[in-house]
UniProtKB/TrEMBL annotation, chains A, B:
Keyword hit for DNA-binding: yes
Coiled-coil annotated residue ranges, if any: none
Residues in HTH merR-type domain copies: 1-69
UniProtKB keywords: DNA-binding
PROSITE patterns cross-referenced by the UniProt entry: HTH_MERR_2
Species whose genome carries this gene: Aeromicrobium yanjiei
Cited InterPro entries: DNA-bd_dom_put_sf, MerR-type_HTH_dom, MerR_fam
Superkingdom of source: Bacteria
Statement: the UniProt record of this protein carries the keyword Nucleotide-binding: no
GO MF annotations in UniProt: DNA binding; DNA-binding transcription factor activity
Protein name: MerR family transcriptional regulator
């Protein structure tokens, strides 16, 4: 198909499809003349995927890196998850793992597989809250951890074992696309709980 | 205290404190001469709060709006939560509530208090995932909703009843500052669950 058809199938304008091509988010088509190229079904899938990553708030640079993981998948879901997490939460400077490691131990979570990125993200989020005078008590934090673990169980249970490509695609998409789902659900649930308590 | 001391107490540089003043994030101090102003304890609190809001990823404009809610609090936690949610998830264009309302009914959540912002955010997040070819089955979504409701119970249980200012501060900060905590915990939990399943 031509680029106009590709764009239509992917739900974007032709200008946007061309922009994705220029940014290397979409691989080039098969040239059929000096000014025309043909695209096929995998291009449509990649276009939809790119659109979803950008709609989830990823920058073009991060989306390009995530798509790169899909093109040369790691040695299994565990390595792939690590790669994607490192891309999504890059680490700036040295990471003080002590406090977060103590928390992981309290919850009985594996501390060896906890990557610097998410460890630093949690440590920093706790610091920021405390600096603002917001106390996160152990009960609140334990409850958050329990809920996050339930969510993660669902995330990982859904990883297909049919093929490694399917697994890769699922891990990457699930990690990124379900974040806004979780945050929106929390807000809707807060309204429900508030109405019961204060309404 | 002078602005240099205010900045030091709030953990920012003097240049940053001046920037917050210029942007209206921090109220002006009490002028003691043509070029000098004095600041007091509430300024320190406000400075720390501002820093935390910006560190959590809010834009200057959104932080200003959130701080405005704190200055003229709504008629109670329920109204305040609504105001803050509307600021954080502004609605663009008409909202198709049908699909999300059906979900809320399935979970037994109050549909009347569900604001357009979070409703539109959930509808859009589900659309984006599906357009990318990621299927969110009912089991996964129900599990996410249950976990989000547990988190929201913790959020609302922690709202202090001592004074309406405390309640306001808690709702605003909790809604914003605990989002990065939840997302970091999910990533750490995913690594733990993956290690158990694939390790």
């Amino acid at each position: 198909m031509r680029i106009s058809e590709l764009a239509r199938r992917g739900g974007v304008t032709t200008a946007t499809a061309k922009y994705y091509l220029r940014e290397g988010l979409l691989p080039p088509g098969r040239l059929t003349s000096a000014t025309q190229a043909q695209y096929d079904e995998p291009h449509v899938q990649r276009l939809r995927l790119t659109r979803a990553l950008l709609a989830s708030g990823l920058s073009v640079a991060t989306a390009r890196e995530v798509l790169g993981h899909l093109d040369s998948p790691a040695d299994g879901p565990l390595d792939l998850l690590a790669e994607v997490q490192t891309t999504l939460t890059p680490v700036e400077g040295p990471v003080d793992r002590e406090r977060v490691t103590a928390l992981l131990r309290r919850w009985g979570w594996n501390t060896d597989v906890a990557l610097d990125g998410p460890v630093a993200a949690l440590a920093s989020a706790l610091d920021v809250a405390e600096a603002a005078g917001f106390t996160i008590g152990p009960e609140l934090l334990d409850g958050y951890a329990a809920a996050a673990h339930e969510v993660a169980e669902l995330d990982i249970a859904g990883v297909p074992t049919t093929s490694s490509e399917d697994a890769v695609q699922h891990v990457v998409l699930g990690t990124i696309l379900l974040e806004p789902v979780l945050l929106a659900l929390r807000r809707l649930a807060q309204a429900d709980v508030s109405a019961r308590r204060f309404g």
